[in-house]
Amino acid sequence: MGCFLQGSGSSSGSLPTLAATGQIYFPSGNFQLDNFNQTEGINLVNTYHVSPRMFYLVDPSPNAYATPEVANQFGPDGTVLLGQNLTSLELGQDPSGAALVAVMAHEFAHLVQFKNGFSSPGPRAELHADFIAGWYLSVRGRYAWVNLMPVLKVFYQLGDYEFNSPSHHGTPDERLLVAQAGFNSGAANIGQAYSLGLQFVH
Fold this sequence. Notes:
By secondary structure, the chain is of the alpha+beta class. It has one domain (3-201). It has eight helices and five strands, in the order βαβαβββαααααα. A five-stranded mixed beta sheet has the order 1-4-5-3-2. The longest helix has 18 residues, at 31-48. It is globular, with a radius of gyration of 15 Å. The two termini are 22 Å apart.
């Protein structure tokens, strides 16, 4: 159970299996990257009120993943996996890191869903996570929507038109629209944003 950012993912198995085979790991060996992700991760923990563990994922196709599976006692609310290829791709296209923050915010939003018993599969869950991610980018206070939009347009090209696929995330236009609605709800707290997102995607 979990959410792959794109498709069903190429890695499978439990977290201990992935760790034992070297498919998930931390740190990366890049101090700046690890510091960036840890700093943003702490901010997400404090803003979303969830406590996961975060690892890097060997991802032949750029991907990220959120699962309620617990890696250890220090992450009781689940686990976030950031693909090494996805991380390199997003930072290469957007050195500011905003796209990578959007990825992290989306995956952390799934942990909030898990914690609240959200059970609607498919695009509704993905678009709801996009709404919360947009809200987080507003709350973060570092970004203006006019600057974010070009970055998110590239990121949301991961949207798709596979309407009958269980991994359908919504179209690129839908994802951008929902993220903007979340961004415009930045005055809300996480509980309110969660409810507003549900209303919006329904």
